[in-house]
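dumping this here before i forget
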Amino acid sequence: MRTAVLYATREGQSELVAQRVASDLRSRMIEADVINVKDIRGHVDWDAYDAAFVVASVHAGHHEKEMIEFVKRSKDELERLNAAFLSLTLSQAGAELESNTPAQREAAHADALRMVAAFATETGWRFEHSLTVAGALMYSKYNFLVRWVVKRIARKAGFDGPTSRDYEFTNWPAVDRFVTEYAPP
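structure:
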């Protein structure tokens, strides 16, 4: 049994999630190849895989362009493998932030689901299993303009921490449960 764990990332959080997915699979004695879609040159040997997970983060309301293009080219193979999709977004962090009101959490989760639906529409991929995952604020990796924009997005999501440090919001137990539920038998 071999699984492809495909990811696209900007600051590295999607890669961390992809590595965690692979680690969870390996703990179940399933081989896992972690692949940055940006590094794919040419053809993927889809016959080598029995399953797949796709991990992509959202920036400014959209998933990474390289993941969108990859999925457009590979949607038939991903559907054949019944690939599962993990979408990283700060909106999900707002949905999980306990200091937010129930209405704020509901609106944030709806926004996260809207981005998943937009990804499906844009790529044409019909996946059956998806999880919205809270990502991270990597202020140390942003330039001034990006830091300013992300700070505004974070504030809208209900988080107003200082930009002098990074923040990780990923709900690792939720990722683990998702992998356990959708890992190949």
